[in-house]
Amino acid sequence: MQRFLLYQDCKEFVDALNLAEDFHIHNSIANMHIWLLYQRLRDFAENKFAFQLREELIDAFNKMITAEMEDVQVLRKFKKLEDIENYLYAIRRNLDFHFFINGATTHQLEYKLDALVWTCIFHEKVPRYSEQVYRMSQYLLRHF
């Protein structure tokens, strides 16, 4: 789990995508990578070990988020943890909807992918038509 987090913190990745230091964006990118791994494991649908690994991957990611939040002093910490887990789940569902369910986007994956990345990864914290959004969209598309 820590290994791919190191990848997204490396200078080459951060510089190529021009990422700012932001908790929500960082966790959303990690969540996107978890989703990509989950999809790769979904290809092995007949393998019970792949199914188990998929579920353990999501659980490990949620436990990691919980462990990171243990040191943060905020009011209603458990509510915030629940909100973060629900939000990350919603992002994974939005990615599923875009790539597998919505007819317009399943046939043409590029269609509105930048809008999805802008809302789900960058949380509308960067300008809508910025180069960052398009680079992240291409990164997601290339690794899907």
What can you tell me about this protein's structure?
It is a single chain. With 144 residues, this protein is mainly alpha-helical. The protein has one domain (2-143). It is 75% helix and 0% strand. The protein is built from eight helices and no strands. It has helices spanning 2-9, 11-17, 23-42, 48-69, 77-101, 103-107, 113-120, 131-143. It is globular. The relative contact order is 0.13. The mean pLDDT is 85.
Question: What key phrases describe this protein's structure?
Answer:
144 residues; mainly alpha; 8 helices; globular
**Helicity level, as a percent range?**
over 70%
Beta-strand proportion:
under 5%
Largest pleated sheet: none
The mean pLDDT is 85
C-alpha Rg (nearest Å): 16 Å
List the helices and strands in order.
Answer: HHHHHHHH
* Individual helix count: 8
Task: Provide the structure class.
Answer: mainly alpha
Terminal CA distance: 19 Å
Number of separate strands: 0
Can you tell me the residue ranges where pLDDT is under 50 for at least 5 consecutive residues? none
Shape: globular
What count of structural domains? 1
